[in-house]
Specification:
This protein is of the alpha+beta class. It is 40% helix and 26% strand. The strands form five sheets. A five-stranded mixed β-sheet has the order 3-2-1-9-10, sandwiched between helices. It is flat. The structure holds adenosine-5'-triphosphate and magnesium ion.
Length: 321
């Protein structure tokens, strides 16, 4: 019989909220953002919020309720969570939901936990079980959790990247740095401004970043504002120029992983060098990142099929351990 205590699996990320119903098939993705008017009323959520705010920046403000993997605005977080739960459950007006398993950062302060639980309670979740994101991501990537062998999970998000060494179903060592996909977006904005005189929006920077990985020609069209002529313009930029931008960010991530390994039990580190690391988070799709880490760390790097979803997919397995 299905336990109501494991009704939903949730990953409330800084960029993306992911929800999976225990009996459902599809992971719901909702960008973790809402558009608020001057009175503080929420006018739109998710992708629609970004879309309408860009056409009415005078009336609407975008609020991202999760910053650096911590709930910064519990009310807005609760609103998004409730809307996502309503959508996943198919009960559009529901105000109470079966309990949930929530993926959370491996180490959390008391205030962080309080803010998260406040958001869950306001969203209508009464019973919440917290599981470490790295364990959930490992389980969702097919890593056997209960084994004593060391496993390394690197989760690249929008604003933060964590590395965690796991063994026997526990997080043995973990640390995170404020580096992620957004740093690559910012690097692209800088390159286009300084080298090409083109001012591009954060949305365009993210679009270009994603397209670098799938570009089939040697150049990509980039839309922006020509700074000299003060006019909107689309330029064709060589992919080789764009692909160089993230390398400093990738090297910072490699350094972070090395620092964690150099402080960890040698036997577990040896296992990692034998088996390689799991690279997850949607940032694992960053163009050239897996190769750069392979090269810099000299160990195998595995990227699961759905690197952003492995946490939400594996959360129940951890809860059952
Ligand atoms: N195909 C892609 N190629 C490159 N980067 C991508 C791709 N898809 C998404 N990203 C980037 O991945 C980042 C978001 O990753 P993810 O969805 O794992 O974040 P999150 O789970 O919300 O964040 P966190 O875990 O830090 O709270 C964003 O910077 C986004 O631009
Ligand atoms: Mg995440």
């Amino acid at each position: 019989m299905r336990s109501p205590a494991r009704g939903y699996s949730i990953d409330l990320g800084s960029a993306m909220l992911r929800v999976l119903a225990r009996d459902g098939q599809r992971v719901l993705h909702m960008p973790t953002v809402a558009a608020l008017d001057h009175e503080g009323r929420i006018r739109a959520r998710g992708s629609r919020a970004v879309e309408i705010q860009s056409s009415r920046p005078d009336l609407l403000t975008l609020v991202r309720p999760v910053l650096q993997r911590s709930v910064a605005d519990p009310m807005v977080a609760a609103y998004l969570l409730r809307a996502a739960l309503q959508e996943v459950s198919g009960a559009r007006k529901a105000r109470h939901f079966a309990a949930a398993t929530l993926c959370v950062p491996d180490r959390m302060g008391e205030l962080q936990v309080d803010a998260l639980l406040a958001a869950c309670e306001t969203a209508g979740l009464r019973r919440v079980r917290l599981v470490a994101k790295s364990l959930a991501a490992a389980a969702g990537s097919g890593v056997p959790l209960a084994e004593p062998a060391g496993a390394l999970v690197v989760d690249v998000g929008a604003e933060r990247t964590s590395a965690a060494l796991l063994s026997c179903g526990d997080v043995i060592a973990t640390s995170s740095v404020p580096v992620g996909g957004l740093d690559v977006d910012a690097g692209l904005v800088r390159l286009l401004r300084h080298r090409h005189g083109l001012l591009i929006s954060p949305t365009e920077a993210e679009r270009v970043k994603v397209r670098i990985g799938t570009a089939t020609t040697g150049a990509l069209p980039v839309r922006g504002h020509d700074l000299l002529r003060s006019l909107p313009e689309t330029r064709t930029i060589p992919v080789s120029d764009l692909a160089r931008v993230p390398l400093a960010t990738y090297d910072a991530l490699a350094k972070h992983v090395l620092a964690l390994l150099s402080d960890s039990p040698p036997k577990l580190v040896e296992d990692v060098y034998d088996r390689g690391l799991v690279l997850c988070g949607e940032g694992a799709r960053l163009f050239g990142l897996a190769d750069r880490l392979r090269d810099r760390l000299r160990l195998p790097v595995h990227v699961p099929d759905r690197p952003g979803d492995v946490g939400v997919l594996g959360a129940w397995d951890v809860a059952e351990v």
